[in-house]
Amino acid sequence: MIEKVLIANRGEIALRIHRACREMGIATVAVHSTADSEAMWVRLADETVCIGPPEANKSYLNIPAIISAAEVAGANAIHPGYGFLSENARFASIVEEHGITFIGPKPEHIRAMGDKVLAKSTMKELGVPVVPGSDGAVDKVEDAREVAEAIGYPVLIKASAGGGGRGMKVAQGRQEIDQAFQTARSEARAAFGDDAVYIEKFVATPRHIEVQIMADAHGNVVHLGERDCSLQRRHQKILEEAPSPQLHPDAREEIGLRVTTAIQALGYRGAGTVEFLYADGAFYFIEMNTRLQVEHPVTEMITGIDIVQEQIRVAAGEPLSYTQSDVSFAGHAIECRINAEDPLTFAPAPGTITDYHPPGGLGVRVDSAVYAGYRVPPFYDSLIAKLVVHGATREECLMRLNRALEEYVIGGIRTTTPIHQALMVNDEFRDGRYNIHWLEEFIEQRAE
Prior knowledge:
Layout lengths: L3 E4 L3 H13 L3 E7 L6 H5 L2 E6 L10 H11 L3 E3 L9 H9 L3 E2 L4 H8 L1 H10 L15 H11 L3 E9 L2 E6 L2 H19 L4 E5 L5 E9 L5 E13 L2 E7 L6 H18 L3 E10 L2 E8 L6 H8 L3 H9 L16 E8 L11 E2 L2 E3 L6 E5 L6 E2 L6 E9 L2 H14 L1 E3 L5 H8 L2 H4 L7 H10 L1
Parallel strand pairs: 1-2, 1-4, 2-3, 4-5
Antiparallel strand pairs: 6-7, 6-8, 9-10, 9-12, 10-11, 11-14, 12-13, 14-19, 15-18, 16-20, 17-19
Helix pairs in contact: 4-5, 7-8, 12-13
Protein backbone atom coordinates (compact mmCIF):
# COMPACT_ATOMS: atom_id res chain seq x y z
CA MET A 1 0.00 0.00 0.00
CA ILE A 2 1.36 3.41 -0.98
CA GLU A 3 1.09 5.85 1.93
CA LYS A 4 3.62 8.59 1.13
CA VAL A 5 4.96 9.60 -2.30
CA LEU A 6 8.15 11.52 -2.92
CA ILE A 7 7.76 13.63 -6.06
CA ALA A 8 11.11 13.58 -7.87
CA ASN A 9 10.38 16.52 -10.13
CA ARG A 10 9.47 20.21 -10.20
CA GLY A 11 7.11 22.73 -11.77
CA GLU A 12 3.61 22.04 -12.99
CA ILE A 13 4.05 18.27 -13.08
CA ALA A 14 5.15 18.18 -9.44
CA LEU A 15 1.98 20.06 -8.48
CA ARG A 16 -0.09 17.79 -10.74
CA ILE A 17 1.23 14.69 -8.96
CA HIS A 18 0.68 16.29 -5.54
CA ARG A 19 -2.96 16.95 -6.38
CA ALA A 20 -3.54 13.37 -7.51
CA CYS A 21 -1.99 12.05 -4.31
CA ARG A 22 -4.03 14.36 -2.07
CA GLU A 23 -7.26 13.21 -3.71
CA MET A 24 -6.26 9.63 -2.91
CA GLY A 25 -5.42 10.42 0.71
CA ILE A 26 -1.69 9.92 0.10
CA ALA A 27 0.88 12.19 1.78
CA THR A 28 3.49 13.91 -0.41
CA VAL A 29 7.15 14.86 -0.09
CA ALA A 30 8.45 17.61 -2.37
CA VAL A 31 12.15 17.65 -3.13
CA HIS A 32 13.53 20.92 -4.45
CA SER A 33 16.66 22.84 -5.32
CA THR A 34 17.56 26.07 -3.58
CA ALA A 35 16.19 27.92 -6.62
CA ASP A 36 12.73 26.40 -6.04
CA SER A 37 12.42 26.91 -2.27
CA GLU A 38 9.43 29.27 -2.69
CA ALA A 39 7.70 27.26 -5.41
CA MET A 40 4.00 26.44 -5.19
CA TRP A 41 4.39 22.65 -5.15
CA VAL A 42 6.90 23.01 -2.32
CA ARG A 43 4.50 25.17 -0.32
CA LEU A 44 1.63 22.72 -0.73
CA ALA A 45 3.42 19.43 -0.07
CA ASP A 46 3.11 17.74 3.31
CA GLU A 47 6.89 17.63 3.69
CA THR A 48 9.80 19.20 1.82
CA VAL A 49 13.47 18.32 1.43
CA CYS A 50 16.09 20.54 -0.22
CA ILE A 51 18.33 18.28 -2.32
CA GLY A 52 20.89 20.68 -3.73
CA PRO A 53 21.79 23.89 -5.56
CA PRO A 54 20.01 25.17 -8.69
CA GLU A 55 21.96 23.09 -11.22
CA ALA A 56 19.86 20.06 -12.19
CA ASN A 57 22.79 17.65 -12.07
CA LYS A 58 23.32 18.61 -8.43
CA SER A 59 19.65 18.43 -7.44
CA TYR A 60 16.89 16.95 -9.61
CA LEU A 61 19.34 14.53 -11.26
CA ASN A 62 21.15 13.73 -8.01
CA ILE A 63 20.08 10.13 -7.36
CA PRO A 64 21.78 9.71 -3.94
CA ALA A 65 20.17 12.93 -2.68
CA ILE A 66 16.71 11.85 -3.85
CA ILE A 67 17.00 8.38 -2.32
CA SER A 68 18.26 9.90 0.94
CA ALA A 69 15.32 12.32 0.98
CA ALA A 70 12.87 9.44 0.52
CA GLU A 71 14.45 7.49 3.36
CA VAL A 72 14.59 10.47 5.73
CA ALA A 73 10.95 11.38 5.00
CA GLY A 74 9.75 7.79 5.15
CA ALA A 75 8.31 7.84 1.63
CA ASN A 76 7.49 4.35 0.37
CA ALA A 77 7.05 5.37 -3.28
CA ILE A 78 8.66 7.77 -5.76
CA HIS A 79 6.95 9.36 -8.76
CA PRO A 80 9.46 10.68 -11.32
CA GLY A 81 7.03 12.78 -13.40
CA TYR A 82 8.49 13.44 -16.87
CA GLY A 83 11.95 14.53 -17.90
CA PHE A 84 14.85 14.42 -15.41
CA LEU A 85 15.06 10.80 -14.13
CA SER A 86 11.71 9.55 -15.42
CA GLU A 87 13.23 7.32 -18.11
CA ASN A 88 16.43 6.44 -16.29
CA ALA A 89 16.46 2.66 -15.85
CA ARG A 90 19.34 2.87 -13.36
CA PHE A 91 17.32 5.21 -11.15
CA ALA A 92 14.28 2.92 -11.29
CA SER A 93 16.46 -0.03 -10.28
CA ILE A 94 18.07 1.85 -7.40
CA VAL A 95 14.65 2.93 -6.12
CA GLU A 96 13.44 -0.66 -6.04
CA GLU A 97 16.71 -1.91 -4.50
CA HIS A 98 16.04 0.41 -1.57
CA GLY A 99 12.61 -1.14 -1.02
CA ILE A 100 10.78 1.87 -2.42
CA THR A 101 8.03 1.56 -5.04
CA PHE A 102 8.88 3.17 -8.37
CA ILE A 103 5.73 4.62 -9.90
CA GLY A 104 6.55 3.70 -13.45
CA PRO A 105 7.48 0.76 -15.68
CA LYS A 106 9.94 -1.99 -14.92
CA PRO A 107 13.60 -0.96 -15.33
CA GLU A 108 14.11 -3.48 -18.13
CA HIS A 109 11.32 -1.91 -20.18
CA ILE A 110 12.65 1.60 -19.62
CA ARG A 111 16.06 0.37 -20.78
CA ALA A 112 14.73 -1.48 -23.83
CA MET A 113 12.53 1.36 -25.07
CA GLY A 114 15.25 3.94 -24.36
CA ASP A 115 17.40 2.30 -27.03
CA LYS A 116 15.66 3.41 -30.22
CA VAL A 117 17.16 0.61 -32.32
CA LEU A 118 16.14 -2.09 -29.84
CA ALA A 119 12.71 -0.49 -29.40
CA LYS A 120 12.11 -0.52 -33.14
CA SER A 121 13.16 -4.14 -33.57
CA THR A 122 11.11 -5.19 -30.55
CA MET A 123 7.97 -3.49 -31.81
CA LYS A 124 8.48 -4.90 -35.29
CA GLU A 125 8.63 -8.42 -33.83
CA LEU A 126 5.42 -7.70 -31.90
CA GLY A 127 3.52 -6.75 -35.07
CA VAL A 128 3.69 -2.96 -34.81
CA PRO A 129 4.37 -1.25 -38.19
CA VAL A 130 7.73 0.53 -38.37
CA VAL A 131 9.45 2.93 -40.75
CA PRO A 132 11.59 1.04 -43.30
CA GLY A 133 15.26 1.33 -42.43
CA SER A 134 18.40 -0.33 -41.11
CA ASP A 135 18.01 -3.43 -38.95
CA GLY A 136 20.20 -1.89 -36.27
CA ALA A 137 22.92 0.66 -35.70
CA VAL A 138 25.04 1.61 -38.70
CA ASP A 139 28.74 2.02 -37.92
CA LYS A 140 30.35 2.85 -41.26
CA VAL A 141 29.54 5.46 -43.86
CA GLU A 142 29.82 2.76 -46.55
CA ASP A 143 27.04 0.82 -44.82
CA ALA A 144 25.00 4.03 -44.52
CA ARG A 145 25.20 4.52 -48.28
CA GLU A 146 24.12 0.93 -48.88
CA VAL A 147 21.09 1.19 -46.59
CA ALA A 148 20.07 4.53 -48.09
CA GLU A 149 20.23 3.16 -51.62
CA ALA A 150 18.18 0.12 -50.60
CA ILE A 151 15.29 2.01 -48.98
CA GLY A 152 15.51 5.07 -51.26
CA TYR A 153 16.16 8.73 -50.58
CA PRO A 154 15.45 10.89 -48.68
CA VAL A 155 16.61 9.18 -45.48
CA LEU A 156 16.76 10.23 -41.84
CA ILE A 157 19.82 9.43 -39.74
CA LYS A 158 18.95 9.25 -36.03
CA ALA A 159 20.87 8.80 -32.79
CA SER A 160 20.06 5.44 -31.21
CA ALA A 161 20.06 6.99 -27.73
CA GLY A 162 18.51 10.24 -28.97
CA GLY A 163 15.53 12.42 -28.37
CA GLY A 164 14.33 15.99 -28.77
CA GLY A 165 15.67 16.27 -32.31
CA ARG A 166 19.34 15.99 -31.35
CA GLY A 167 21.47 13.66 -33.44
CA MET A 168 19.01 13.73 -36.36
CA LYS A 169 19.98 14.61 -39.92
CA VAL A 170 18.20 14.29 -43.27
CA ALA A 171 20.03 13.27 -46.44
CA GLN A 172 18.02 14.19 -49.54
CA GLY A 173 20.34 12.34 -51.93
CA ARG A 174 23.59 10.39 -52.21
CA GLN A 175 25.60 13.62 -52.33
CA GLU A 176 24.47 14.41 -48.77
CA ILE A 177 24.67 11.02 -47.06
CA ASP A 178 28.35 11.15 -45.99
CA GLN A 179 28.11 14.56 -44.33
CA ALA A 180 24.74 13.82 -42.71
CA PHE A 181 26.04 10.53 -41.31
CA GLN A 182 29.15 12.07 -39.77
CA THR A 183 27.28 15.06 -38.37
CA ALA A 184 24.57 12.90 -36.79
CA ARG A 185 27.21 10.72 -35.12
CA SER A 186 29.08 13.75 -33.79
CA GLU A 187 25.91 15.29 -32.39
CA ALA A 188 24.86 11.98 -30.84
CA ARG A 189 28.24 11.58 -29.16
CA ALA A 190 28.14 15.13 -27.79
CA ALA A 191 24.53 14.96 -26.58
CA PHE A 192 24.26 11.40 -25.30
CA GLY A 193 27.81 10.04 -24.98
CA ASP A 194 26.89 7.42 -27.58
CA ASP A 195 27.53 7.88 -31.31
CA ALA A 196 25.42 4.93 -32.47
CA VAL A 197 22.99 5.93 -35.23
CA TYR A 198 20.46 4.16 -37.41
CA ILE A 199 18.77 5.03 -40.68
CA GLU A 200 15.12 5.29 -41.61
CA LYS A 201 13.16 6.28 -44.69
CA PHE A 202 12.35 9.98 -44.35
CA VAL A 203 8.58 10.44 -44.41
CA ALA A 204 8.19 13.91 -45.88
CA THR A 205 4.90 15.32 -44.56
CA PRO A 206 3.51 13.05 -41.84
CA ARG A 207 1.48 13.79 -38.77
CA HIS A 208 2.81 12.84 -35.33
CA ILE A 209 0.24 10.56 -33.70
CA GLU A 210 0.76 8.92 -30.31
CA VAL A 211 -1.31 6.30 -28.51
CA GLN A 212 -1.69 6.45 -24.72
CA ILE A 213 -1.69 3.08 -22.97
CA MET A 214 -2.12 1.87 -19.40
CA ALA A 215 -1.09 -1.59 -18.24
CA ASP A 216 -1.10 -3.35 -14.89
CA ALA A 217 0.93 -6.19 -13.40
CA HIS A 218 -1.93 -8.64 -14.04
CA GLY A 219 -1.69 -8.62 -17.83
CA ASN A 220 -4.44 -6.06 -18.46
CA VAL A 221 -3.73 -3.41 -21.09
CA VAL A 222 -5.97 -0.67 -22.47
CA HIS A 223 -5.43 2.25 -24.81
CA LEU A 224 -6.92 5.67 -24.14
CA GLY A 225 -7.04 6.83 -27.73
CA GLU A 226 -4.59 8.97 -29.65
CA ARG A 227 -3.18 12.46 -29.43
CA ASP A 228 -2.11 14.54 -32.42
CA CYS A 229 1.22 16.19 -31.59
CA SER A 230 2.14 17.40 -35.06
CA LEU A 231 2.57 21.07 -34.17
CA GLN A 232 6.28 21.12 -33.40
CA ARG A 233 9.23 23.46 -33.57
CA ARG A 234 12.63 21.79 -33.80
CA HIS A 235 11.01 18.51 -32.74
CA GLN A 236 9.59 20.13 -29.60
CA LYS A 237 5.82 19.98 -29.24
CA ILE A 238 3.94 23.27 -28.97
CA LEU A 239 0.27 22.23 -29.08
CA GLU A 240 -1.46 18.84 -28.80
CA GLU A 241 -5.02 17.74 -29.35
CA ALA A 242 -7.20 14.69 -28.92
CA PRO A 243 -8.60 13.12 -30.91
CA SER A 244 -6.63 13.82 -34.07
CA PRO A 245 -8.68 15.91 -36.52
CA GLN A 246 -7.49 13.66 -39.36
CA LEU A 247 -7.80 10.15 -37.91
CA HIS A 248 -10.85 8.04 -38.80
CA PRO A 249 -12.38 6.03 -35.92
CA ASP A 250 -11.60 2.79 -37.78
CA ALA A 251 -7.91 3.73 -37.92
CA ARG A 252 -7.98 4.54 -34.21
CA GLU A 253 -9.46 1.15 -33.41
CA GLU A 254 -6.95 -0.66 -35.61
CA ILE A 255 -3.81 0.99 -34.23
CA GLY A 256 -5.15 0.81 -30.68
CA LEU A 257 -5.59 -2.95 -30.99
CA ARG A 258 -2.12 -3.42 -32.45
CA VAL A 259 -0.52 -1.38 -29.68
CA THR A 260 -2.36 -3.03 -26.79
CA THR A 261 -1.59 -6.49 -28.18
CA ALA A 262 2.11 -5.62 -28.41
CA ILE A 263 2.26 -4.05 -24.96
CA GLN A 264 0.54 -7.03 -23.43
CA ALA A 265 3.05 -9.39 -25.05
CA LEU A 266 5.85 -7.19 -23.73
CA GLY A 267 4.62 -7.63 -20.16
CA TYR A 268 4.69 -3.88 -19.66
CA ARG A 269 3.41 -2.18 -16.50
CA GLY A 270 2.29 1.42 -16.01
CA ALA A 271 1.61 4.36 -18.30
CA GLY A 272 3.28 4.60 -21.67
CA THR A 273 2.97 6.32 -25.01
CA VAL A 274 3.63 4.67 -28.35
CA GLU A 275 4.50 7.28 -30.97
CA PHE A 276 3.99 7.07 -34.72
CA LEU A 277 4.41 8.98 -37.92
CA TYR A 278 1.14 8.84 -39.85
CA ALA A 279 1.00 9.43 -43.59
CA ASP A 280 -1.32 8.31 -46.38
CA GLY A 281 -3.32 6.13 -44.02
CA ALA A 282 -0.27 4.25 -42.72
CA PHE A 283 1.30 4.24 -39.24
CA TYR A 284 5.05 3.98 -38.66
CA PHE A 285 6.38 3.39 -35.14
CA ILE A 286 9.12 5.82 -34.08
CA GLU A 287 9.51 5.39 -30.31
CA MET A 288 7.87 4.58 -27.00
CA ASN A 289 7.99 6.89 -24.00
CA THR A 290 7.94 4.89 -20.79
CA ARG A 291 6.58 7.67 -18.61
CA LEU A 292 3.84 10.21 -18.15
CA GLN A 293 3.66 12.64 -21.08
CA VAL A 294 3.51 16.43 -20.83
CA GLU A 295 0.32 16.31 -22.89
CA HIS A 296 -1.51 13.66 -20.86
CA PRO A 297 -4.25 16.17 -19.81
CA VAL A 298 -5.89 16.18 -23.24
CA THR A 299 -6.47 12.44 -22.92
CA GLU A 300 -7.85 12.92 -19.42
CA MET A 301 -10.25 15.57 -20.70
CA ILE A 302 -11.84 13.33 -23.35
CA THR A 303 -11.87 10.10 -21.30
CA GLY A 304 -12.50 11.36 -17.76
CA ILE A 305 -9.68 9.09 -16.52
CA ASP A 306 -7.05 10.41 -14.11
CA ILE A 307 -3.88 8.91 -15.55
CA VAL A 308 -1.66 9.88 -12.61
CA GLN A 309 -3.96 8.24 -10.07
CA GLU A 310 -4.08 5.14 -12.26
CA GLN A 311 -0.26 5.10 -12.34
CA ILE A 312 -0.23 5.07 -8.54
CA ARG A 313 -2.81 2.27 -8.29
CA VAL A 314 -0.94 0.11 -10.80
CA ALA A 315 2.38 0.68 -9.01
CA ALA A 316 0.71 -0.46 -5.79
CA GLY A 317 -0.15 -3.76 -7.49
CA GLU A 318 -3.82 -3.08 -8.12
CA PRO A 319 -5.48 -4.07 -11.41
CA LEU A 320 -6.65 -1.39 -13.82
CA SER A 321 -9.91 0.14 -12.65
CA TYR A 322 -11.45 -0.12 -16.12
CA THR A 323 -11.46 -2.36 -19.18
CA GLN A 324 -11.23 -1.33 -22.82
CA SER A 325 -15.00 -1.47 -23.17
CA ASP A 326 -15.29 1.00 -20.28
CA VAL A 327 -13.21 3.60 -22.11
CA SER A 328 -15.20 6.12 -24.13
CA PHE A 329 -14.20 9.32 -25.88
CA ALA A 330 -16.26 12.46 -25.41
CA GLY A 331 -15.68 15.70 -27.27
CA HIS A 332 -12.39 17.33 -28.17
CA ALA A 333 -9.48 18.72 -26.13
CA ILE A 334 -6.49 20.91 -27.01
CA GLU A 335 -3.43 21.76 -24.92
CA CYS A 336 -1.30 24.86 -25.43
CA ARG A 337 2.15 24.79 -23.91
CA ILE A 338 2.92 28.21 -22.49
CA ASN A 339 6.68 28.75 -22.27
CA ALA A 340 8.69 31.57 -20.76
CA GLU A 341 10.23 32.39 -24.13
CA ASP A 342 10.29 35.26 -26.57
CA PRO A 343 7.39 34.57 -28.99
CA LEU A 344 9.49 35.54 -32.03
CA THR A 345 13.00 34.30 -31.25
CA PHE A 346 12.08 31.55 -28.76
CA ALA A 347 14.97 32.67 -26.55
CA PRO A 348 14.39 31.77 -22.86
CA ALA A 349 12.80 34.64 -20.93
CA PRO A 350 13.07 33.94 -17.19
CA GLY A 351 12.14 36.62 -14.69
CA THR A 352 9.57 37.67 -12.13
CA ILE A 353 5.86 37.31 -12.91
CA THR A 354 4.30 40.60 -11.83
CA ASP A 355 0.68 39.84 -12.69
CA TYR A 356 -1.02 36.49 -13.01
CA HIS A 357 -4.64 35.65 -13.80
CA PRO A 358 -5.48 32.22 -15.26
CA PRO A 359 -8.61 31.77 -17.38
CA GLY A 360 -11.57 29.79 -16.11
CA GLY A 361 -15.04 28.65 -17.03
CA LEU A 362 -16.58 25.43 -18.26
CA GLY A 363 -14.08 23.04 -19.86
CA VAL A 364 -10.98 25.11 -19.04
CA ARG A 365 -8.04 23.60 -17.13
CA VAL A 366 -4.71 25.25 -16.31
CA ASP A 367 -1.82 23.09 -15.11
CA SER A 368 0.73 25.52 -13.70
CA ALA A 369 2.73 26.14 -10.55
CA VAL A 370 3.35 29.87 -11.05
CA TYR A 371 1.77 32.85 -9.29
CA ALA A 372 2.11 36.64 -9.09
CA GLY A 373 5.51 37.36 -7.59
CA TYR A 374 6.98 34.01 -8.63
CA ARG A 375 10.42 34.20 -10.22
CA VAL A 376 10.85 31.87 -13.18
CA PRO A 377 14.40 30.50 -12.74
CA PRO A 378 16.83 30.30 -15.67
CA PHE A 379 18.07 26.83 -14.82
CA TYR A 380 15.31 24.56 -16.14
CA ASP A 381 12.88 23.92 -18.98
CA SER A 382 10.94 27.03 -19.97
CA LEU A 383 7.46 25.43 -19.71
CA ILE A 384 5.48 27.39 -17.10
CA ALA A 385 1.87 26.44 -17.85
CA LYS A 386 -0.39 24.18 -19.87
CA LEU A 387 -3.72 25.60 -20.93
CA VAL A 388 -6.08 22.71 -21.69
CA VAL A 389 -9.58 23.26 -23.05
CA HIS A 390 -12.40 20.79 -23.75
CA GLY A 391 -15.44 21.19 -25.94
CA ALA A 392 -18.23 19.00 -27.29
CA THR A 393 -16.76 19.46 -30.79
CA ARG A 394 -13.43 20.68 -32.13
CA GLU A 395 -15.07 23.92 -33.26
CA GLU A 396 -16.46 24.55 -29.78
CA CYS A 397 -13.08 23.68 -28.29
CA LEU A 398 -11.34 26.20 -30.55
CA MET A 399 -13.80 28.96 -29.70
CA ARG A 400 -13.37 28.27 -25.99
CA LEU A 401 -9.60 28.11 -26.31
CA ASN A 402 -9.49 31.43 -28.14
CA ARG A 403 -11.51 33.01 -25.32
CA ALA A 404 -9.29 31.43 -22.65
CA LEU A 405 -6.12 32.71 -24.31
CA GLU A 406 -7.57 36.22 -24.34
CA GLU A 407 -8.24 35.96 -20.60
CA TYR A 408 -4.84 34.57 -19.65
CA VAL A 409 -2.67 37.24 -17.98
CA ILE A 410 1.01 36.54 -17.34
CA GLY A 411 2.73 39.86 -16.74
CA GLY A 412 6.39 40.74 -16.27
CA ILE A 413 7.89 38.13 -18.61
CA ARG A 414 7.60 37.22 -22.25
CA THR A 415 5.69 34.06 -23.13
CA THR A 416 4.67 32.07 -26.20
CA THR A 417 0.98 32.91 -25.74
CA PRO A 418 0.94 35.15 -28.88
CA ILE A 419 1.84 32.14 -31.04
CA HIS A 420 -1.20 30.24 -29.81
CA GLN A 421 -3.41 33.28 -30.34
CA ALA A 422 -2.17 33.52 -33.92
CA LEU A 423 -2.95 29.85 -34.49
CA MET A 424 -6.55 30.39 -33.38
CA VAL A 425 -7.24 32.63 -36.38
CA ASN A 426 -5.31 30.61 -38.96
CA ASP A 427 -7.58 28.80 -41.41
CA GLU A 428 -5.22 25.88 -42.06
CA PHE A 429 -4.89 25.13 -38.37
CA ARG A 430 -8.60 25.54 -37.74
CA ASP A 431 -9.29 23.10 -40.57
CA GLY A 432 -6.76 20.62 -39.16
CA ARG A 433 -4.63 20.81 -42.31
CA TYR A 434 -1.15 20.58 -40.82
CA ASN A 435 1.79 18.18 -40.47
CA ILE A 436 5.00 18.06 -38.43
CA HIS A 437 6.68 20.70 -40.61
CA TRP A 438 3.75 23.12 -40.84
CA LEU A 439 4.39 25.07 -37.62
CA GLU A 440 7.96 26.02 -38.49
CA GLU A 441 6.77 27.44 -41.80
CA PHE A 442 4.01 29.30 -39.97
CA ILE A 443 6.53 30.77 -37.49
CA GLU A 444 8.86 31.86 -40.30
CA GLN A 445 5.99 33.67 -42.02
CA ARG A 446 5.12 35.50 -38.77
CA ALA A 447 8.72 36.67 -38.40
CA GLU A 448 8.87 38.20 -41.88
